[in-house]
Amino acid sequence: MRIWVAVLLCLSSAAHADDGTDFTAQAKAMFRIAACGSDDAIPRRLSARAIDAHCDRMKWIYGQFKKTWIDDAKPYIAKLRPDDLPSVVVYPFGGGDLSSALTVFPDATELTTLSLEAPGDIRAIDTIDAKRLGADLKAISTDIRRLYGEAYSTTQSLMAASHSELPGTIMFALAGLAVHDMEPVRLRYFGIEPDGSIRYLSEQELDERAKAIAEKGAKKKHSRHFWYEQTSAFANVEIQFRPRGDDKAPIRTYRHILANLDNAHDRADGRVLAHLEGKGKVAVMTKAASFLLWWDDFSEVRNYLLAHAAWMISDASGIPPRYAEPAGFEHVTFGDFAGPYFIQDPNGARKELVRMWAEQEHRDLPFRFGYPDQDKHNHMMVMRPRPNGQPRGARAGTP
């Protein structure tokens, strides 16, 4: 009898280890203190007055974001989405921008963002002192206000937020839950296996990885580009969530993956693309993506999107027609596009996109989606499969 009990205990422990360490308590604390998404009690060691003032500011930011962007963008985009769109979303170069993803795909059951920024260590909320907390809350709320006000966030601001003691990328995601009246119900970190599957990590594994990285020291990275991915033990996070207060609602999943998506990294380590390919057909969005999908240096991720996207929405930093049309897609344009307001354009995609907007009928766009164009106009495009039999390069029809 004792032997069977011991075996069962071992099996139970192994299953628990496979599930990784659950950081839900920290996620809910940060959701309350930093994202202001609940009315849970504030820890005694922190200043309730300071947090209340921060939450007044955040609630104003959320209200403005709803009024000036969500209330326009959500119903507009809803009319464009196909009824049979997959409920799995991939958002490359997306930072922790769950706010926009849930606006564009409010019924998604699984959402994945990928960027150079690490999620960060959620445990910081357990030990951060009041002075540092105040500084981090002010900095992160400023970055969120900028994201919501400009409809995109720069790599520099995402990097700055990710270097705060509070995990800035997770904060962006929790703010996205708060603004959409969702709540976190579980948070775990994971690694990606060679076959693309995920494996949840224990707190001990995370600490061991962090120690190894610290002992190895900062390694100078070499790249022909100006951007660099972070090195972190807390590289990939999963947050499960549901509508606030609805215990019976299905659980939905958000993941953020730290990844440099250029060809050199994709070819050296194929785990991230293998993970994405395992999702099958997906809905895709990107915006403010530094026009990287125009570059041949990002052809691997571009080819993945062309092979797996059922439908894609973006600003002009999405996939140009020269790549989309041979893969069986057409574009539908919205707003005005006279050219990108910043760009290195090695392949001449700028002229191609300007011509595409000029050739299609004009469709008003009452909100900004990612970058403005060079004249500060709103613009957006949808990439969708061409109807059967339509010749390649034919003018897109009415959405």
Strand content range: 15-25%
Helical stretch count? 14
User: End-to-end distance, in Å?
Assistant: 68 Å
What low-confidence regions span 5 or more consecutive residues with pLDDT below 50?
1-16, 154-163, 393-398
What's the SSE pattern?
HHHEHEHHHHEEHEEHHEHEHEHE
Shape: globular
What structural category arises from helix and sheet content?
alpha/beta
On the 0 to 100 scale, the average pLDDT is 87
Lateral strand order in the biggest sheet: 4-3-5-6-2-1-7-8-10-9
The radius of gyration computed from the alpha-carbon positions, rounded to a whole number of angstroms, is 22 Å
Number of strands: 10
Helical residues, percent: 40-55%
The largest sheet, given as strand count, sense and whether it forms a barrel, is: 10 strands, mixed
Write up this protein.
This protein is an alpha/beta fold. It has 14 helices and ten strands. The chain has a domain at 2-256. It has a ten-stranded mixed beta sheet with strand order 4-3-5-6-2-1-7-8-10-9, sandwiched between helices. The longest helix has 31 residues, at 48-78. Residues 1-16, 154-163 and 393-398 have low confidence and may be disordered.
Secondary structure layout plus pairing:
Layout: H1 2-18, H2 24-33, H3 48-78, E1 88-92, H4 98-104, E2 110-115, H5 124-127, H6 130-150, H7 155-162, H8 168-179, E3 182-192, E4 198-200, H9 203-216, E5 236-243, E6 252-258, H10 263-268, H11 271-277, E7 282-286, H12 299-308, E8 309-314, H13 321-324, E9 329-335, H14 349-359, E10 379-385
Parallel strand pairs: 1-2, 1-7, 2-6, 7-8
Antiparallel strand pairs: 3-4, 3-5, 5-6, 8-10, 9-10
